[in-house]
Amino acid sequence: MSSPISSPILSLAEIRDARELAAITTSAFEVSDTIYPITWGNTDPGAHDTAVMLLFNPMQSETIVTWKVEIDGKIVGYARWSLPEICKVTEGNAVGKNGEDDKSASAQHKKKVEEGWKTPDGNLLLQWGLSTADKEGRKIYLVSTPQARVFYEKSGWLVKENLAINLEVYGGRGIYQRSWMIREARDKEGL
């Protein structure tokens, strides 16, 4: 547990952070995702982490930005942004322009489930992408779990499509649900 005086530190993730980011992803999915037991329940411990680590290669590129938040030297969450066009991203700024054809970016956010998104570090992870999208007139799309959907709706995302799969058909329990969501860029005056 972090001390009350600890401040979250936002920085670009590095490839050496992949194992910790994968563990955060696994811990979030295994406790909250109804499809996890079907797809990963019979695998060896660590199999999901290993598979997810491959998704972090590259950690950063011209079109992928992965931010992490640390408290007391421990990574507590991350946000991964897929950008529509070549951008130069450094800590503290983002430079890049969209072409007319594609003015959207996608977002993937993971935090330790018990800490929630309403924490200062969760807010840090979202703010970079939101402010960049608003400044550059970009839409942001994401795929949300039922647990995060209400949060994203309150933050300006609209549900465009829902998916629901009865997992009993596949030997599981419950309903697998996802919402495809989009957030329009906000006027600079509204920032």
From TrEMBL:
InterPro entries: Acyl_CoA_acyltransferase, Trichothecene_AcTrans
SUPFAM superfamilies hit by this protein: Acyl-CoA N-acyltransferases (Nat)
Source organism, top-level taxon: Eukaryota
Coiled-coil stretches noted in the UniProt entry, renumbered to this chain: none
Identification of the protein by name: N-acetyltransferase domain-containing protein
